[in-house]
Design goal:
- The protein is mainly α and 110 residues long.
- It has helices spanning 3-23, 30-50, 56-79, 85-104.
- Helix 1 packs antiparallel against helix 2 (30-50), helix 1 packs parallel to helix 3 and helix 3 runs antiparallel to helix 4 (85-104).
- The longest helix has 24 residues, at 56-79.
- 21% of the residues are buried.
Length: 110
C-alpha cells in the first residue's frame, strides 16, 4: 500500500481514537473506550509502516497538522465546541505549513 495512503489511514484512525476518547468520558463508557484503543492501535501501526519510507519529521508534521484540523472540526460538529478567529487562523497556519513543506521541501522526496 502507498505510504501516503497509509499515513492518511493513520491520521483518520487517530482522529477516531481521539473522538472516542472524548466520548468515553474518562473511560467510563465501554464502547467509546474500545474505540479509543482500536483507533490508536491502528493509527500507530499504520504510522510505523509509513516511517519506513516517509521521513519521521515530515510524517509527523502531516500527522499532527491534519489531525489538529480534523479533530477540531469534529469537536465543533459532534461535540458543539466553538472556534474563535484565533483558532481558525492558527489552524490555517498549520495547514499552510504542511502544504509548504510538502510542496517545496526537499526533505519530502525520498
Amino acid at each position: 500500500m502507498n505510504s501516503w495512503l497509509l499515513l492518511m489511514v493513520a491520521i483518520l484512525a487517530e482522529v477516531i481514537g481521539t473522538s472516542s476518547l472524548k466520548a468515553s468520558e474518562g473511560f467510563t463508557k465501554l464502547w467509546p473506550s474500545i474505540g479509543t484503543v482500536i483507533g490508536f492501535s491502528i493509527a500507530f501501526y499504520c504510522l510505523s509502516l509509513t516511517l519506513k519510507v516517509i521521513p519521521v519529521g515530515v510524517a509527523y508534521a502531516v500527522w499532527a497538522g491534519l489531525g489538529i484540523v480534523l479533530i477540531t472540526l469534529i469537536g465543533w460538529w459532534l461535540f458543539g465546541q466553538t472556534l474563535d478567529w484565533a483558532a481558525v487562523l492558527g489552524m490555517g497556519l498549520i495547514v499552510t505549513g504542511v502544504v509548504i513543506m510538502n510542496v517545496f521541501s526537499k526533505s519530502v522526496s525520498h
